[in-house]
């Protein structure tokens, strides 16, 4: 879908992955997030793998997807470990996988290894499970962001994603625009990390984001886009 269609639907609930990834997240907090996602009909609930089966059960019968992070938050696990983690998450009910790219390998210019890392997870996902690749843009140069975006596209990923939210920076409109330019108009671009209000959300959507990942989803969707 072309990004221009999203600019007209900035309040579309399906732009949002309602997210809870903090290590101290309790079962009660995850349940609350799921209930909010069902109320607003968000695209997905994004969690660590421990909660995958629980979230899938809570979301059963709805259009809200279960999204699980893989190789999170560092991306430095072995490819085999990432593939196994993705496989287990899918067995537990994950319908979308957000994996962290191997940042060190990218910076070492080991581009084939980076692509093979993504490809291995995409093979596990197959055609029916959406794969998003987290670049961790705050750790990359502009050229590295461009290179990582292209490698993810070549490996068959469905989305590229800015950030884990656990490093030294989050999504910026400049990085989103660069990612969008690198992959063209059809591939998904997810902005995540440090998105706190509706004004930020609007800017990221206008820069080319087709999905937003945040724990502040309710505040954003009910917020003033002109504030």
Question: Would you give an account of this structure?
Answer:
The protein has helices at residues 4-7, 27-40, 52-59, 79-91, 103-107, 111-125, 142-154, 173-183, 198-207, 217-221; strands at residues 16-20, 44-47, 65-70, 96-100, 130-134, 159-161, 188-192, 211-214. Mean pLDDT is 94; it is low at 1-10. With 227 residues, it is an alpha/beta fold. The longest helix has 15 residues, at 111-125. The radius of gyration is 16 Å and the shape is globular. The protein has an eight-stranded parallel beta barrel, surrounded by seven helices.
Overview in brief:
43% of the residues lie in helices and 16% in strands. It has helices at residues 4-7, 27-40, 52-59, 79-91, 103-107, 111-125, 142-154, 173-183, 198-207, 217-221, and strands at 16-20, 44-47, 65-70, 96-100, 130-134, 159-161, 188-192, 211-214.
Percent range of helical residues: 40-55%
**Structure annotation, total helices:** 10
Largest beta sheet, briefly? Answer: 8 strands, parallel, barrel
Strand order of the largest sheet: 1-2-3-4-5-6-7-8
Distance between the ends:
28 Å
What fraction strand? 15-25%
What integer value in Å does the Rg equal?
Answer: 16 Å
Pick out the low-confidence regions: 1-10
- Number of β-strand runs: 8
The secondary-structure class comes to alpha/beta
**Dominant shape:** globular
Q: What average pLDDT do the residues reach? A: 94
Q: What's the SSE pattern?
A: HEHEHEHEHHEHEHEHEH
């Amino acid at each position: 879908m072309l990004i221009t269609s999203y600019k007209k639907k900035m309040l579309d609930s399906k732009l949002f992955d309602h997210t809870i990834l903090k290590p101290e997240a309790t079962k009660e907090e995850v349940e609350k997030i799921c209930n909010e996602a069902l109320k607003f009909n968000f695209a997905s609930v994004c969690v660590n793998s421990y909660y995958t089966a629980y979230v899938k059960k809570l979301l059963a019968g709805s259009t809200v997807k279960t999204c699980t992070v893989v190789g999170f938050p560092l991306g430095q696990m072995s490819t085999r470990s990432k593939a196994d983690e993705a496989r287990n998450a899918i067995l537990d009910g994950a319908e979308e996988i957000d994996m962290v790219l191997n940042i060190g390998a990218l910076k070492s210019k080991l581009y084939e290894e980076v692509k093979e890392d993504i490809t291995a997870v995409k093979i596990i996902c197959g055609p029916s499970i959406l794969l998003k690749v987290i670049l961790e843009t705050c750790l990359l140069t502009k050229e590295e962001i461009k290179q990582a975006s292209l490698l993810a596209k070549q490996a068959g990923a469905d989305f590229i994603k800015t950030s884990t939210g656990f490093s030294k920076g989050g999504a910026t409109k400049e990085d989103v625009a660069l990612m969008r330019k690198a992959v063209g108009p059809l591939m998904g671009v997810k902005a995540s990390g440090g998105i706190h209000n509706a004004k930020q959300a609007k800017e990221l959507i206008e820069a080319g984001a087709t999905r937003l990942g945040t724990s502040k989803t309710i505040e954003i969707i009910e917020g003033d886009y002109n504030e």
